[in-house]
Amino acid sequence: MSEAAIEAVAERAGQEGIGLVRFLYADHGGIIRGKASGTERLRERMAGGIGHTVAMMAMSMLDQLQPVAGMGPVGEVRIVPDPQTFVTLPYAPGAGAMLADLAWPDGSPWDGCPRTFLKQAVAELAGEGYALRAAFEPEFTVGRREASPAAPTIPDRLVPVDDSLCYSATGFHLAHDFAMDLAAALQAQGLSVEHYYPELGHGQQEMSIRHAGALRAADNHVLYRETVRGVAFRRGLWASLAPKPIPDQAGNGCHLHASLTDLAPDGAPGGRNVFADPADDNGLSAVGYYFIGGLLAHLPALVALTCASVNSYRRLVPQTWSSAYACYGMDNREAAIRICSPWRGDPGGSVNLELKPSDSSANPYLALGAFIYAGLDGIRGKIDPGEAVNVDPATLSDADRAAAGAHRLPASLNEALDALAADQMLTDALGPLRTTAYLAVKRSEAAHFALSTDPYYECFHHFTKI
Ligand code: GLU
Ligand code: MG
């Protein structure tokens, strides 16, 4: 980290009257955590990080510490912020934030750090001559946190702010003040708002953000999650990006959009979208099809990282536009991978792939890193994705679905974790420490929620934390 970069942040913090700067990271439970530095010692803390126990990456979303070798009570890492990510927080007056790596005290990379994993994936992709641009497309539910009739077993429930219809004008009216605050807060942090609309579920909203380079896209998603909740909390509301915060309402997806560009001779991302081929019926290049081939080949394991919670699998059911089958299609909202039709005016630049089995309970660094590795495996192995499925796979007979290779996605977190444990390529990429810790944390969450048969118990724990 250069002294000039540290100085620039310290100066900005001074000018903007910042008293505390949060150093944030995402853990294996998908929770955003961190510690804050006072501004007097900010320069030192930026250079050396804030001390942190290695054990925190073995902590589940229920704050239950799992026994993981290398993440016990002995051992220290540092939360080291990336100065490029500094923002002042519009929803937390006097506070700023940076996204952080977890590094050894001497500054060298720690093999348990998720953000380092994404950087490693980006470097490996660059080795093949490509850079990835991505955008997470988050949905979330706005409501009030109220005492549940089932207390004390289920202390609180999320009561949505409205019962408006999908994309309805009434929905715009009812959430207007919140939506305006949110858009302004995102823009103020440099996240460019693309679209906003009230979504299908009661109180459900979607505000999408412009794509960016891979690391920035994942950082943006952490800032986004923080902003949605922070803006809501300040208005006395409760917002949740959990995949299914309310059992009988539409789920919150966080579809992952991505395309590859070439690299300029100096290694910087070039301008050409290598997924585009105007001569192809779907506008997609051979590289794009191979990328899909890799995603499909690793999909059961990949969803353990992109649909990372027990709650995720309540969302992934047929005919909810969330996808339930491993197949791809042109603008097919029931296929796990959608080839998005290009924009008129930018047919070459706008082609992108959308992964639908993806939600905000994921650690975005692990999810996007694994997505890159899976696609790269397809490119390297020239994996043929087979034919596009351009119908709703749920309407096919079992035999036709099998013939199309459209297998059901894992129906539970445990099933996805089994697939991840068996996926040599992905576990090699993650490395032994991340793999062991991730599996231990996630298995513990699955075991915990298996003890309750009441969906509201699981939803309570997810909407309060994500
Ligand atoms: N809410 C849907 C999901 O769970 C997505 C709806 C849409 O297509 O925007 O993924
Ligand atoms: Mg949507």
Question: How is this structure best described in words?
Answer:
The chain has 466 residues and is an alpha+beta fold. The protein has two domains: 3-110, Roll (Ubiquitin-like (UB roll)); 121-463, Glutamine synthetase/guanido kinase, catalytic domain (Creatine Kinase, Chain A, domain 2, 2-Layer Sandwich), CATH 3.30.590.10. The chain has helices spanning 3-15, 42-48, 114-127, 169-174, 176-188, 214-234, 286-306, 312-315, 364-380, 398-403, 413-421, 424-430, 432-450, 455-463, and strands spanning 20-26, 32-38, 50-53, 76-81, 87-88, 95-103, 130-147, 156-160, 193-198, 204-209, 212-213, 238-240, 254-263, 269-273, 325-330, 335-340, 352-355, 407-408. A hairpin with a 6-residue loop joins strand 5 and strand 6 (95-103). The radius of gyration is 21 Å and the shape is globular. The mean pLDDT is 96. The site of glutamic acid has 10 residues, from loops.
Q: In short, what is this structure?
A:
By secondary structure, the protein is α+β, with helices and mostly antiparallel strands.
Keywords:
14 helices; twelve-stranded mixed sheet; alpha+beta; single chain; globular; 36% helix; six-stranded mixed sheet; Ubiquitin-like (UB roll); 18 strands; binds magnesium ion; binds glutamic acid
